Amino acid sequence: MKHIVVTLIFVLAGAGVATAQTPAQTMHDTYCMVCHDTTVYTRENRTATDYESLRAEVNRWQSNVSLNWSDADLNTVTTWLAERYYGFSCSREC
Q1: Each residue of 21-47: pLDDT tens digit?
Q2: Of 7, 45, 66, 77, which residue is 20 to 30 A from 17 by alpha carbon distance?
Q3: d(CA 38, CA 34)
Q4: How remote is the C-alpha of 69 from its chain's centroid?
């Protein structure tokens, strides 16, 4: 029995058991990664310089591709990007 448990642990670890994505990450990966990869967030001459300009970019691009995201969706994705890639603090109620 002990052998089965140890084997199962190694199988699960090797299988790369998926972790749950946040709704923001799912939206980002589904809609944003179709057009670009994550290098746009780390390039030297990136457009966003603070939370508000990042939100404006997210809004501009979601509008360009007719996603019709709500303010809550914009805040969710912007906050996720700000925390994950930019290190910006939210200057509004997020």
Answers
A1: 999 999 999 999 999 989 988 888 888
A2: 77
A3: 11
A4: 15
Entry pTM: 0.74
Give the C-alpha separation, 28 to 23, whole Å: 9
Give the pair of three-digit tokens for residue 42.
């780390």
* Integer Cα distance of 9 and 4 in angstroms: 9
CA distance 40 to 32: 11
Instruction: Go through the domains of the chain in sequence order and give each one's CATH number.
Output: 21-86 (1.10.760)
Q: pLDDT, tens digit, for every residue of 62-82?
A: 999 999 999 999 999 999 999
Nearest one of 18, 20, 38, 43 to 28, comparing CA atoms: 38
